[in-house]
Amino acid sequence: MIEVKNLVKRYGDNVAVDNLSFTVEKGQVYGFLGPNGAGKSTTMNIITGYLSSSEGTVVIDGHDIFEEPEKAKKSIGYLPEIPPLYPEMTVKEYLNFAADLKQVKKSEKKKMVQDIMELTKISNVQDRLIKNLSKGYRQRVGIAQAIVGYPEVLILDEPTVGLDPKQIIEIRDLIRKLSKNHTIILSSHIMQEISAVCDHILIISKGKLVACDTPDNLSREFAGDNVLEVTVACTPEQLKSALYDIEGIKEVSYRISELKDALDVTIKPEAGEDLRESIFYACAKNNCPIMKLQFKKMSLEDVFLELTQRDSVEDNIEEEEE
After folding, report:
1. Alpha helices by DSSP H, 35-134
2. Topology of 226-295 in CATH?
3. What pTM was computed for the model?
4. Given 3.40.50.970, 1.10.579.10, 3.40.50.300, 3.40.1440.10, which CATH number is that of 2-221?
5. For 105-119, what is each residue's pLDDT tens digit?
């Protein structure tokens, strides 16, 4: 549906997007993540044709955004971080205006606008001026204008920013409904939101793609399924003795537990190893009672920090070597 190849965007000596390549499959919801200044909004603006690129290509549904901009843009609905609203218009006037801009047929416009207002739950405010709406409703109106014309692709840049918890839940539910009929790229800083609605995750750092996979696969890749958190009533010396002969342990770290005379231990096994039984018997043999033993699954937030911090560390090492 979307193919981005070797995309580069320079502002003087600053490289905002650095040789970025990825593919977005039809009917999927992609989360687009990155720290502030990573190049997310720049990339989205290039994909939608708002910005030109310094190098590279973007193909939307078979049409190059730079060579066939009109055909490519017909396949895209875009919600920028700040919705492009006209506050002096009513909601209905604005959506009719958006339909005219997108060259929706007059015979289809009335029903389309009405259906979209019902879908986004703004029918009850259709005759109110946009400037008098709450931020949550304005965000819904922004999403509604992106849906006008029923484009194949919806690109939503921070659709829930500044909303209260109830509004965030409502917008997430709306995005899930839209995903049944649209391919969606969603940019957000809220990891829970990305985990809740996205099929795939794209993470960029300093304009470079550092990960592209499903949320579950990313968690497994960076932490494995068998990372264990264990609370043991023992001293560090006893812990070392208990774990010394266990094969398959990749890494062990510990800290003083809130429980008296106990340690909170994190154990990372080698790939595919299940060490629960071995750890249980080893601790029992060394008179180290286990107070807690559970799997720990790395969160998407942990993965995000691991990837983006790693990228920064590698850049610092390269600079020092130079």
Report:
1. 40-47, 69-73, 91-101, 106-119
2. Alpha-Beta Plaits (3.30.70)
3. 0.73
4. 3.40.50.300
5. 999 999 999 999 999
